[in-house]
Every structure is written in C-alpha cells, then in structure tokens.
C-alpha cells in the first residue's frame, strides 16, 4: 500500500510529460517535421505497391506526371500530407497506417515536391 502511494507523484509527472509530448506532436509544425522524418525508402515501396498503378492509368509513363504537372494541386507540405491521406481512401484496400503514409510523404517530398519544414 505504502509503496503504491509513494509512486503516485511519479505517475502524475509521467502523465504530464506524456501529455505535453502529445500536444507538441499534434502541433502543426511538429507534425510536418514528423512527416519529414518518415522512411522514404519504405515509402517508395509502398507507393509503388499501392498507389502508382492508378496514377499511371491517368497519366501514363511511371505515373509521376501527376506530381509534376503544371497545375498540380499540392502546394505545401501540409497539403501533401492531406492529399496522401485522401488518396489512401482511393486505394482499393485503403488501410495504409499512419507510418506508411508518413513514409510515402517523405519519399514524395524528397523526390518531387521538396518543401522545407517551415
Ligand atoms: C483510384 C485512383 C488513385 C489511387 C489508388 C491513388 N491516387 Fe493519388 N490521385 C488520384 C487522382 C484522381 C488525383 C488527382 C486529384 C486532383 O488533383 O484533382 C491524385 C493525386 C495525387 C497527389 C497530388 C498530385 C498533385 O500534386 O497534384 C498525390 C500526392 C497522390 N495522388 C498520392 C497518392 C498516394 C500516396 C496514393 C496511395 C496511398 C494514391 N495517390 C493512390 C487517384 C488515385
């Protein structure tokens, strides 16, 4: 009983730290930063596997013209993150997880969009 009671302040402090950390992660900047820290190499694979075929159907070639066409719709890193999420619902299976979406976003940003995290 006594030990349990003594641990309470530590637990409260721990919860506070976790809470602050989540708040930080949820802030826009930090979220964009987290995205840019995704694993681009894995993103390339997932994109090829799950996304590219549809873009190829629309634009031919390797499908990347959708990212580089003159009037392409993505303008910011946040826009890219949103588009990747929307397009995830376009995939037949539509259940890529948040890490996979971060990885794809990193890959697309490194290879095509090149937005700075600012
Ligand atoms: C069923 C077809 C389909 C699938 C599957 C698909 N997309 Fe798309 N994608 C589209 C269409 C249509 C657009 C163009 C939307 C527009 O600009 O009007 C688009 C546009 C995009 C763009 C924006 C390009 C730009 O800058 O204008 C990105 C980025 C993108 N897709 C990523 C993905 C990713 C990542 C996946 C896989 C998770 C994916 N797409 C799967 C149809 C698809």
Short key terms for the protein model shown above:
mainly alpha, binds heme C, about 75% helix, about 120 residues, 7 helices
Question: Care to describe what's here?
Answer:
It is a single chain. With 118 residues, this protein is mainly alpha-helical. It has a domain at 32-113. 74% of the residues lie in helices and 0% in strands. The protein is built from 7 helices and no strands. It has helices at 2-26, 28-36, 40-50, 52-59, 65-68, 77-90, 98-113. Helix 6 crosses helix 7. The mean pLDDT is 82. Heme C (HEC) binds at residues 47, 50-51, 54-55, 66-67, 72-74, 80, 83-84, 87-88, 90-91, 96, 104, 108.
Which cofactor or ligand species appear? Answer: heme C
Q: Which class best fits the helix and strand makeup?
A: mainly alpha
> Compute the gyration radius: what is it?
19 Å
Helices and strands, in order, run as HHHHHHH
Oligomer: single chain
In short:
With 118 residues, the protein is mainly α. It is 74% helix and 0% strand.
Secondary-structure blueprint:
Layout: H1 2-26, H2 28-36, H3 40-50, H4 52-59, H5 65-68, H6 77-90, H7 98-113
The structure holds heme C.
Residues 47, 50-51, 54-55, 66-67, 72-74, 80, 83-84, 87-88, 90-91, 96, 104, 108 line the site of heme C.
